[in-house]
Amino acid sequence: MLSRNIRFLSRRYSQALTFRTSEASPTQQNENQIGLFYTMNNDLCKQLFSHGGLPKSFTKQAKTFTETALMVRHPALDVINCIKATDLNKPAVRYVLYGEKGTGKSLTLAHLLHFAYEDGFLIVHIPWVSEWLRRVPRHKEMSNSQSREGLVDIPLDAAAWLLHFKMQNQVLLKSGDLKISQEYVWSKREKTDAGAPLAELVEHGITRVKYACDVIDVLIKEIKLLSNSKKCKTFVAIDGFNSFFYPLTRLRTTTKKKVTPEEVSLTAPFMNITKNDWSNGVIVLTTDQLAVPADRQENYLPKYLLYQKGFEHLDPFVPVEIGRYTEREFMSCANYYRDRLWLRGPPELESELKLTSACNPYDFMELCAPL
Amino acid sequence: MYNNRMSMVIKFSIKHVLPISGFTSPIARNFVRLQNVCMYSSKATSSKNNVNNSFTDWETLSKKKKVSKAMKAYLERAKEHDEFMKRQQFEYNIGKRHLANMMGEDPETFTQKDVDRAIEYLFPSGIYDPAARPLLKPPEEVFPARKAAEFDEAGRPHHFLFYTGKPNFFKLLYDAAENIQVLHQYQDKVIRRKVTPDPNVSLDLNASVWLTKDQLEQMLVEGLNDLEYDNFKLVMERLVSLPYSYRYKEFIEKYRKSLSTQKFALEIPKPSYDENGCAIVTTYECLRKKARGDVTIKSPGTGKITINGQDLTYFEDTQPREQVIFPLIFTGMQDKVDVIANIEGGGPSGQSGAIRWGIAWGLRSFVDKSMLEAMQVAGLLTRDHRRRERKKPGQPGARKKPTWKKR
Question: For residue A324, what is the nearest residue in chain B, using CA coordinates?
Fold first, then answer.
């Protein structure tokens, strides 16, 4: 038993140099680390992604490997360098990550989130827009909006998101620098005073689920104001953003009327925050084929996925393509799997896997799972 | 009037054409086999002329007193057969003339080729087996020639092994044993001269096997039992094992059948070269199921695979992708060649199968002989001719039967 452990350990450390980097902070990573894996701190991972943000299959694999290791890839580094070089006083720059299915858009976004956290951004992150608009469990809580006529609230999802927001930004919210600019009256008895900390507003949304959607609306407005007044810098990350522009959602009102995304009260605030009429912020969006139904999956380019409307809404933006693995990234990943004893067998296996998976990261992961 | 005559002609011709077609197919199949009689039985007569010549003799012969009973019976049978053949020949000639008239051609110059063409035109048949389709052939082709008498008019057999019952088979054993003896003597002589046998001229038997029992039976025109066949193999093996067996190469080869000759090795196309000096081989007609396409292989390359303008992601599933890369992996050429495939029709499995065959077929030009044989053994060079089987009425699928229920 002991000897086996030693053997495994020695094997791990003999290969460790080739695919791992000890540079765990995305702010410090540079070109030298491309294709190498860095391990995220477990507590941090829990804080950032406990309510989603990492793809399910990846979470499962991370659990098996007992560590969350992300690969440092070129697009993520590019965006980080761009953000570092940006003058935040100018209007917010929008980056759109796009690419084929399974090339790692969400994981790149996770990497960027990590960077944003390290760099002290206030994070506004939607793990997966389709979770709100397209996923309909048996009992999806829906109600008509009180404040805005003709709109539909999804209060539970909104409250869950507020929780996610609170979790991700607990450090910044605790510091108490962020104050509300004006008084908000929710009902006769409930109101939030001007000058109250932002955390109170969030807490109100979580405890009074009925008002969660309205709270989000207000929260986004406040965040924009705070950013403009240089109280904080904001990092907006939305995964599957193109879902907001697909003509229909899968939601139905109680009268069985089909709901368009504009009629969902959560759409408006996030449309608002993705405009570039504010400063001191960074916006990173992904467009994903998987966020829309199969009839809109012919192409992975953002113009096709966003429709004319979304494209005009986002114009101008910086498109960032997430490609498949390069030769080096592939070998690094294969070495990582071998290190985790996830991949075994003769060394010729890699060349075959490379051809079969066509260097697609997700395909490679799926192919290795039963090996 | 004309119509009437025409219909008579057709009636007549059908009468003559169809009956033959009705019962010829089994005979025709046996024909090849029975032809061997002429080739290997020592006293068989083969050609029709021979039969006719001897027939004229038999009438005078039968008048002689000193004729054995067996000979008498044989002569009677032969006479009967001869008359039958004459009749058939007559009918064949008439049928041929009618066909020529129907086709509006000159009956005098109407050849057998024209007859076949006319029949195909006048009696189109959808029957699958060509042997079962209507035909009009010269009777000597349809009815095999008989074995001629194996004994003279006094009833004395020609063949010295006639009374063994299987003269051809025992003649074969006899010859083999004699050859062995001769070889032994030769060997003794060589040893006395103190010369070592030259290893270069030894017999190469790797590419062939002994005839099977059925084949040997066909060849000898005699039924054999297992023991006799074993004896045959034993004797032949003994002959072959001798160091100077190559001296009887012809005799041995006669009883061996070569393994499937590697035809593909001979027909490997030479690659053409483009302006960059790349070798290019294009395989057209890559078929599998409903998929049709062509595959081009470029060497040297970098392992780029292009299918209908896309890369390997043209196939979404793993299985067809594996199909496509299998020949490349097998030959170890995955980084050495580029593959460009155009494929259409069918589904992913058929398309990938077609591409796989196309790649393997094209790679023949770039691999050495041993790899070629390995590819052959791996089944890469074999066309898969299986097609979708039709659904049958009364059952839910091609083979699937309805669920059996007692009541």
Answer: B313
Q: In CATH, which of 3.30.230.10, 3.30.70.1150, 3.40.50.880, 1.10.3720.10 is domain B266-378? A: 3.30.230.10
- Tens digit of pLDDT for each residue in A174-184? 887 888 888 88
Domain extents in chain B: 2-142, 162-258, 266-378
For B312, which of A351, A355, A367 is closest by C-beta distance? Answer: A355
Residue B122's closest CA among B90, B157, B98?
B98
- Going by pLDDT thresholds of 50, 70 and 90, the confidence category of residue B15 is very low
Q: What is the DSSP string of A23-90?
A: ---TTT--GGGTT-EEEEPHHHHHHHHTTS-S-HHHHHHHHHHTSEEEE--HHHHHHHHHHHH--TTS
What is the sign, positive or negative, of the torsion defined by CA atoms of B6, B12, B18, B20? negative
Residue B62 has pLDDT above 80, yes or no: no
What the block records as the tokens of A100 is: 């084929």
Closest among B188, B187, B234 to B210, alpha carbons compared: B234
- pLDDT of residue B153 exceeding 80, the answer is no
Contact at 8 Å (CB) between B145 and B33? no
Q: Which of B305, B311, B334 sits opposite A351 (nearest CB)?
A: B334
Higher per-residue pLDDT: B317 or B64: B317
Q: Do B321 and A351 touch (CB under 8 A)?
A: no
To the nearest whole Å, the CA of B322 is away from the closest chain A CA by 6
pLDDT score, position B261:
54
Q: Where are the domains of chain A?
A: 117-299
Chain A residues near residue B318 by CB distance under 8 angstroms: 356, 363, 367
Amino acid letter at A54? L
Interface ipTM > 0.90: no
